[in-house]
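Per your request, structure below.
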């Protein structure tokens, strides 16, 4: 099934010319429950990983956790084992503090360039793989690993990746396997204070001319929720600032300002962003407004954005929570 976002209620170029030059494409991923294979783009699905390449591990330090050693005694697929445990809220081992031993990472996203417009791979690469540690790091986010590869080079596939030694007690970082239905959209920045007074004044004038019924004092919030930045998982686009004011995150290698690569969302929409619900999902709006898809939770329901250097995909990425 494809997903189609309803058109925005505003022609931004006409209503707010100051925002129009700042348009940026984004790709909504629309992850939905499924059974992807290693040859599919997915969220929380299996990775096309070569047997002769070491699996990424996180070396901590970590906070309070519980052991998962007993979860897979029969050699079941570890991803399915963890997903089943999450769905049943199975807790075989009591709370305890574990030693800071290397912790095997879990697949977060596998994105083939053929499926996801907007990815900018290194020359010759066509597959992006992102993994994370299923525990918080010192910044209250999971540590992530980012790998670009050429899919055709992987002929001997690792079918049983290592199991994490520990996972978050609330299962927050175990994404349920989902297929991806990519959709290209256009976004605009929502950090209006940084843009000066002109965009906000143009929004107020538009609301007045159109007799929208929107309080001019609330027009900024309305644009932010309904026009500028889409909710949910996506590639590229703009950042929906809110937890903090906008601040620079330069590339650790060259100092160039980083750009959003992947936004990992705690929900696909919420009460303020129903206008972004795809046509195909609108019957679910009241029942699944915050739990549809991979069912991960960043902190208390925020987003995590992986940012990369626009000058070189080989430079290290940085993380942001909003």
């Amino acid at each position: 099934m494809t997903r189609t976002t309803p058109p925005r209620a505003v022609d931004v170029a006409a209503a707010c010319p100051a925002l129009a030059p700042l348009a940026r494409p984004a790709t909504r991923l629309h992850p939905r429950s499924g059974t992807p294979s290693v040859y599919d783009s997915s969220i929380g699905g299996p990775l096309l990983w070569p047997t002769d390449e070491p699996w990424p591990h996180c070396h901590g330090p970590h906070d309070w956790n519980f052991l998962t050693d007993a979860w897979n005694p029969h050699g079941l697929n570890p991803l399915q084992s963890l997903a089943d445990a999450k769905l049943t809220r199975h807790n075989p081992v009591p709370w305890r503090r574990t030693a800071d031993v290397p912790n095997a990472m879990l697949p977060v996203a596998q994105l083939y360039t053929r499926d996801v417009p907007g990815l900018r791979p290194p020359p010759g690469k066509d597959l992006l793989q992102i993994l994370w540690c299923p525990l918080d790091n010192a910044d209250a986010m999971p540590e992530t690993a980012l790998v670009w590869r050429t899919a055709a080079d992987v002929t001997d596939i690792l079918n049983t990746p290592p199991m994490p030694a520990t996972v978050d007690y609330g299962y927050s970082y175990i994404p349920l396997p989902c297929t991806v239905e990519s959709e290209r959209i256009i976004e605009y920045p929502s950090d209006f204070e940084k843009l000066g007074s002109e965009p906000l004044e143009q929004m107020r004038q538009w609301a007045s001319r159109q007799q929208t019924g929107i309080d001019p004092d609330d027009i900024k919030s309305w644009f932010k929720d309904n026009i500028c930045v889409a909710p949910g998982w996506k590639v590229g686009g703009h950042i929906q600032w809110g937890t903090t004011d906008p601040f620079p995150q330069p590339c650790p290698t060259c100092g160039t300002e980083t750009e959003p690569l992947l936004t990992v969302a705690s929900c696909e929409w919420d009460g303020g962003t129903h206008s972004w619900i795809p046509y195909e999902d609108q019957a679910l709006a009241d029942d699944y407004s915050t739990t549809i898809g991979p069912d991960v939770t960043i902190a208390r329901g925020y987003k995590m954005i992986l940012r990369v250097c626009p000058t070189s995909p080989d430079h290290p990425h940085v993380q942001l929570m909003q």
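The first helix runs from residue 12 to 15.

Regards,
D.
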